[in-house]
Structures are given as C-alpha cells and as structure tokens.
Amino acid sequence: MLEVSELDAWYGDARALWGVSLTVGAGETVSIIGPNGAGKSTIVAAIAGLHPSVRGQVTVDDEDVLRLPAHRVCARGVAIVPEGRRVFGSMSVHENLVLGAYRRGVRERYRRTMAGVLELFPRLAARSAQPAGTLSGGEQQMLAIGRALMADPRLLLLDEPSLGLAPVVLDEVFAAIGAINARGVSVLLVEQDIDRALEISTRGYLLIEGRIVAGAPAAELRDREDVRRGILGL
Fold this sequence. Notes:
Layout: E1 2-11, E2 14-24, E3 29-33, H1 40-47, E4 54-60, E5 63-64, H2 70-75, E6 78-81, H3 93-99, H4 110-120, H5 122-126, H6 137-149, E7 155-159, H7 167-182, E8 186-191, H8 194-199, E9 203-208, E10 211-217, H9 218-222, H10 225-232
Helix pairs in contact: 3-6
C-alpha cells in the first residue's frame, strides 16, 4: 500500500534522512523505532506532505504523493496523528471530531464514521461537549486518533502516540491501534517504546541517525541485541 524509496530530507542545510526505504502492505502494522533525533517524525511528515525539503519517492497504491500538498495526500486515504496530539483546545470533543471529516467524500457519512470512533473510544462519547483542552493527556491522544479516523483513512500515520502518557492509558491506546488495524486500516507507527510498538506490529524498521539500519519481522527485531543497543545505547 505504501512504498518509500530512497527518501532524503533536509532542515535547511542539515540533512535529516539518508536514502530511507520502507514498505507497508495492505492491512499491516509496521513500526519505525529508534532513539530521539533519529529522523522518525521526519519520515511521517514527508509521507503526509508536511515536510517540503525532500527527495526520493513515496507511493500510495502506486501513485507518487511525495510532492503533493498535505490535503491532497489526505484525499488519497492517508491520515496523520501528529506528535503532541495538537487538538483544538477551545473547541469541544465533538467539534474536533467533525473537523476530521472535512474532506470531500467523507463529510456525507461523518455520522456513521463518528459512531465507529465513539465505539472505539467510549470516553470521548462521555465528554462530547467538553472543551478538548480540559481532557487528560490520554484522552487527548484518543481524540487525536479519533479525529484522524474521521477522515476514513486506508493508511494511518501515528507519530509517538505513547509520548507523555501513563502506562495504564498506554494499554488503552495501543489496544485501540490494534483494533483499528483489525478493521482493515494499515498503520505506520513511529515509536520509542519498542516493546509496545513491536508487540502490535507485523514488521519493524530501526532508524539510526537518519538511516534505516535494520528491518525484520517484529518478533525477530524485538529480540535482537543490536536493536536494543541502537535505541538504548547499551
């Protein structure tokens, strides 16, 4: 479904990615793991059309989307849950969710999509009228994921969903990611919590200093000492 080939990226004169190549098949959950500053979020931003200084190829269902603006990438069935959640704090939970269904072809069925999101995240249903800024961090993460699902994506990009969340909330969030994938949505997950990420993934890639240095089935990657040394510095 997704193929990234020889992707390079820069921030000004500083190079962030070096020839990154990866794939996500239909119905797969694939993780990109690695330490802080490795370039994981840059990959997600480039795929989503949010990072302009790039070179290479990104195809979704064999269509090159690398140089499309973000709204046109979304129209191809790609949605992103950004690092830090970025919910609209002064707007209600319901209003945040409705905003996720802005693209043409999705607006008409937003009530049905909303029902699926609230079934996945019952806490959001109970807080529908509450300002998003008053939610807990975990609830805001659920809202950010729910808002992305309102675009009815075929591919969901998740950037560090565990960031700043308590372990008990993480269980809920990662269970929801598994349920989303079970509904047929392909998932590309950027994550530092390697055990949780690889537990729900079919395959994974290790990114170090802007380069993919390992790619393997999730179970194999989780047990490799060089992977843990690369992330934890052990």
